[in-house]
């Protein structure tokens, strides 16, 4: 772990909070080259209804635009949740040097949890992986978000059931 990892992860957490404010899964990403943040983004999958608008992919796209190159060889990517297979593929293809993530993803994590695509020597590029930076903060944001989402879904289901019951009673 580098001394600035927690600082840059806190910037990724700020991006995740922007996603959460939109009702998106709170995941944020920041790309840093030589100590300068060159791109930042957050999940927009629900907003765009587009499966590929993950925080990492949006940040990579912005970084490529900023640098004028698809090669991000000197870049560190900070992301609040372990990258999925799609994002891990984009990380490898963009030649990002180092990936630092907060919370593990037991359902889709491809930087060490389910598998480790980023350090697989069979690919022509590998990225160094650092996990668990501000893990508790990153994880609790996600846990709380999904807890609230389940509560809302449960309340909506209960409301729907009540309306259906009232409709049936009204027909009798």
TrEMBL record:
Residues 3-128 form the CMP/dCMP-type deaminase domain. Keywords: Hydrolase, Metal-binding, tRNA processing, Zinc. Binds 1 zinc ion per subunit. The active site is at 56 (proton donor). Zn(2+) binds at residues 54, 84, 87. Its cofactor is Zn(2+). The keyword Transmembrane helix does not apply. Its EC number is 3.5.4.33. It catalyses: adenosine(34) in tRNA + H2O + H(+) = inosine(34) in tRNA + NH4(+). Catalyzes the deamination of adenosine to inosine at the wobble position 34 of tRNA(Arg2). Belongs to the cytidine and deoxycytidylate deaminase family. ADAT2 subfamily. HAMAP family: tRNA_aden_deaminase. Homodimer. This is tRNA-specific adenosine deaminase.
């Amino acid at each position: 772990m580098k001394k600035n990892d927690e600082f840059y992860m806190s910037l990724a957490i700020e991006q995740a909070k922007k996603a959460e404010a939109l009702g998106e899964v709170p995941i944020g990403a920041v790309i840093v080259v030589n100590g300068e943040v060159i791109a930042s983004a957050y999940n927009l999958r629900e907003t765009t209804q587009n499966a590929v608008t993950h925080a990492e992919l949006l940040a990579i796209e912005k970084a490529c635009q900023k640098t004028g190159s698809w090669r991000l060889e000197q870049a560190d990517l900070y992301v609040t949740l372990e990258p999925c297979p799609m994002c891990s593929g984009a990380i490898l293809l963009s030649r990002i040097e180092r990936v630092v993530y907060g919370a593990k993803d037991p359902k889709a994590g491809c930087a060490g949890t389910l598998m480790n695509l980023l350090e697989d020597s069979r690919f022509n590029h590998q990225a160094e992986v650092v996990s668990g930076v501000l893990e508790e903060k990153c994880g609790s944001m996600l846990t709380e978000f999904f807890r609230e989402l389940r509560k809302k879904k449960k309340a909506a289901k209960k409301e729907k059931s009540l309306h259906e019951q009232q409709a049936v009673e009204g027909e009798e």
